[in-house]
Design brief:
It is a single chain. The protein is mostly helical and 343 residues long. Helices cover 70% and strands 2% of the residues. It has helices at 2-25, 27-36, 41-55, 57-62, 66-69, 71-93, 98-105, 108-119, 126-142, 153-176, 193-212, 235-260, 263-270, 272-285, 291-310, 332-339; strands at 225-228, 231-234. A two-stranded antiparallel sheet has the order 1-2. The longest helix has 26 residues, at 235-260. The N and C termini lie far apart (38 Å). The relative contact order is 0.22.
Amino acid sequence: MHASSGFQGRSAGLGLALLSAFAFGGSGVAAKPLIEAGLDPLHVVWLRVAGAAVIMLPVAWRHRNLVRERPALLAGFGLFAVAGVQAFYFASISRIPVGVALLVEYLAPALVLGWVRFVQRRPVTRAAAVGVVLAVGGLACVVEVWAGLSFDLLGLLLALGAACCQVGYFVLSDHGGQGGREGEGEQAEPPHPVGVIAYGLIVGAAVLTVVARPWGMDWSLLGGSAGMNGDQVPAWLLLGWIVLLATVLAYITGVVSVRLLSPQVAGVVACLEAVIATGLAWVLLGEHLSAPQLIGGFVVLTGAFIAQSAAPKPPSGPVAAGAGTGVAAGDVEGELSSGRARH
């Protein structure tokens, strides 16, 4: 009986993890037509985050104790995992293909391990180092370095900025996100991940409001349509896709899947996000990648998986085990990172 219920739970968790990866993977595909229709990338990010924050307000009210108990974690998640990652990612896809931008972000495991090895001066396993080498080598194929870097350099740097924001969130979590109040030695229940997501969206919306200045946005564009590989799609429909599916549904299903599976397993499934995003961009946007780029993308994901799985587990937090899609920690940070620091 217990084995049957456990199998059902894992099956449900796997289904939710796949749904989360699909929902996150579609964010760039829905956002790029809006950007090409004339909306500034920062305005699209603000609409996404602010819309999701409004929907999550009841959840934030229910977990209002987090404001007092975990201010640094909420600020870090909002600044890095929400505002930073989203802004850099959406800015990058305005200049380079969606699949390439997302694959560049999968350098996050390599950057995390670099922080562990050279800043924290903790050893990393040989397998983790191999994963980093694979990820970097695969990325060289994705951007076709033999062709003199055929992609927009600024677009690549913006995608790399998104990866750095993920690393910043994990580093902050390592220093202040464990059980107990920040700055105190007492142990307590870890903060509820959905509550942290809700406040992260609120903090991210506040930061982006200052940066994006939405009062200067051309709101009339939302009443028009946007081109998607030759077809015209209502702008409001794309915005609803971004807010409801690619943000609210994606974060919640990601968190629930981790609870039914584990941060490591859900993180591995989340690697499919890059495959899904590339496939959707190919079909819906006509962004075709060459054979070397597809092979390089596979190598990037393989390297990210190895680096994530082989990284040493730190005694105090998830930094050493963190990747762009999952961390080997049983606390809230593991659950959040599989539900992302993502798009």
